[in-house]
Amino acid sequence: MTKIYNFGAGPSMLPGTVLQRAQEELLDWHGAGISVLEMGHRSQVYTAIAEKAEADFRELLDVPADYRILFLQGGATGQFSAVPLNLMGDKAKTAYLLTGVWSEKAAAEALRYGEVHVVATGRAESYTKIPQPEQWLLDSNAAYVHYTANETIGGVEFQQIPDVGALTLVSDMSSNILSRPVDVSRFGLIYAGAQKNIGPAGITVVIVREDLLGRANSITPSVFDYTKQANNASMLNTPPTYNWYMLGLVLEWLKEQGGIAALEQKNIRKSAKLYAAIDRSSLYSNPIGLACRSRMNVPFRIADTELEERFLKDSVREGLINLEGHRSVGDFRASIYNAMPEEGVDVLIEFMREFERRYG
Amino acid sequence: MTKIYNFGAGPSMLPGTVLQRAQEELLDWHGAGISVLEMGHRSQVYTAIAEKAEADFRELLDVPADYRILFLQGGATGQFSAVPLNLMGDKAKTAYLLTGVWSEKAAAEALRYGEVHVVATGRAESYTKIPQPEQWLLDSNAAYVHYTANETIGGVEFQQIPDVGALTLVSDMSSNILSRPVDVSRFGLIYAGAQKNIGPAGITVVIVREDLLGRANSITPSVFDYTKQANNASMLNTPPTYNWYMLGLVLEWLKEQGGIAALEQKNIRKSAKLYAAIDRSSLYSNPIGLACRSRMNVPFRIADTELEERFLKDSVREGLINLEGHRSVGDFRASIYNAMPEEGVDVLIEFMREFERRYG
């Protein structure tokens, strides 16, 4: 059978050894006699699994002691609401840096709860570039400045942490968390849906500096109240137990790979060779500015649009699946998260080259 | 090895054949070449899984065509917020029937969003009885009347659907959904966290009558907005894909068992024999009124409290696990949801009898 490489943007490919271990442990976790799927969230056996995942996450991303790590439900879209509800306090406004579809969505949701100041927007350039810091208008009255570290659909990634001075920085890292080291101490809050780099869909990680707790608006649904969740070790209500366990298996795999610094080197190699293949071709192109091309999501177009259908069909036949772009954009996109092995990218490049030779 | 029977209140026991099938399908779902854990939620292969689960749910509970079935995140506690946010409309108040810990929590959360009228409360009787309908004070100005169909902690279950006249009836059925037939047409909305009778933790089912859509408060987080989720087939954002799949496997198992009417007969037999064993003993007792004893959660006490620790230790040794009561109550509780086989209850009864013979 052809080996399958899954380039889907999320839920996405998981490491083979993680899936094998999940399969082996599914009926009887380490002799407990029951499946993780059946464990009570407050049982000793389960809380050990949950705490191990939290400790591994803290170690991998080097999260300082004055930050809490929460495991919640609702995805990044849930956090689009939870962030303003928890962090606005008595401020009237928030601030958003707009770099694509996801930062726009985050800002639109914040608008339900107060004024939204736009720091800068790349819309005029169709979000192919991140606006230069000189063009940013910071507002010292904003409760926080929000940015999307990696735009999954557009394929635009911040290569540095934005400098927002004394303002509280908040980031959606759903599609690049744990793909590179990050200085967490520069942030007030980081959040990420797990279904790209760190596990299956249905669990969301929130890293929040402790001094930001205690200021949730009274209309905040309790499940989204960071303070209540922090005070209950993310078990104010039943957490998504199996998703948390799977996330833990992915974290153990990341540690076996040598941690985030090693992963970053692999991610640089993978993305660099794919962009190089696109750039030297006359059939494929990527519209994103060189300084902000994403290491995780590589969108590309085919000059001859009549070849699109054939490209998709042929790629699937070769075991290269889910290369279609986001339904809102079209074209193609290769998502090459941590779990995508380097040989998957090599096979894709070889397929693209052969396709161009034949039809280009 | 001793066969394990898991009496935990949730996350709880799953049918063995469901777990076996999940294990078999984990690496490669039906020849798709990838795991369900890796499938994009908008892929054809995954949407077929999701739609099958919805259709099976509709069939099993005989949900009328003018009701939408949503698969959300956040558990019942998330719905404690979502229900008032979506259903209050321009009304100033909601109404709650209080029968234990969970209905109290639901009412407390509704209080964030408006006035809460208490229809009746069983608090004076320590929630051992459901207040008689003659004692209920209905308020025609309430947006809806909420009740908890089965109090998981207290072990109190409504044996009939409450008659609230022309008012909209809302029910939390987290711990008894699909354990008995229900006339859905009597309700405006039913919700249930999956982790007791219908699957793993991390997915919540909402059944809502279509005419109740379109009135969400503007502060409603989008992920909790029933209308937006209904318009997007519960995929406004990435749903908990694997949890949804597991729920689907449980539904298929329920159909194989003969459907809900057959399950109800089994649940009646299981609970009746356990209550009978408790009632005829002089060591064990259950404090709940005969008319409202839960078929799902059977709390019980041991007259000689010095025997409690030994009871727990011995039961675990016999493979009867998670019999401790809820951390807020203490004592013991046997949760005997759909997935608990009748022989599990038989083994428990035999153990309790032998324990009483030896130490009682």
Please describe what this structure looks like.
2 copies of one chain form a homodimer. Chain A is an alpha/beta fold. Chain A folds into 2 domains: 17-256, Type I PLP-dependent aspartate aminotransferase-like (Major domain) (Aspartate Aminotransferase, domain 2); 259-359, Aspartate Aminotransferase, domain 1. Chain A has helices at residues 16-25, 44-61, 75-87, 101-110, 226-231, 241-256, 259-280, 308-317, 342-359; strands at residues 5-6, 67-72, 93-98, 115-121, 142-148, 150-151, 156-157, 169-172, 189-193, 204-209, 284-285, 297-302, 320-321, 332-335. In chain A, the strands form 4 sheets. A 7-stranded mixed sheet of chain A has the order 2-10-9-8-5-3-4, with helices on both faces. A 3-stranded antiparallel sheet of chain A has the order 11-12-14, covered by helices on one side. In chain A, helix 3 crosses helix 4 and helix 7 (259-280) runs parallel beside helix 9 (342-359). The radius of gyration of chain A is 21 Å and the shape is globular. The two termini of chain A are 28 Å apart. Chains A, B: Pathway: Amino-acid biosynthesis; L-serine biosynthesis; L-serine from 3-phospho-D-glycerate: step 2/3; Cofactor biosynthesis; pyridoxine 5'-phosphate biosynthesis; pyridoxine 5'-phosphate from D-erythrose 4-phosphate: step 3/5. Chains A, B: GO terms for molecular function: O-phospho-L-serine:2-oxoglutarate aminotransferase activity; pyridoxal phosphate binding. Chains A, B: Its main location: cytoplasm. Chains A, B: L-glutamate binds at residue 42. Chains A, B: It is found in: Cytoplasm.
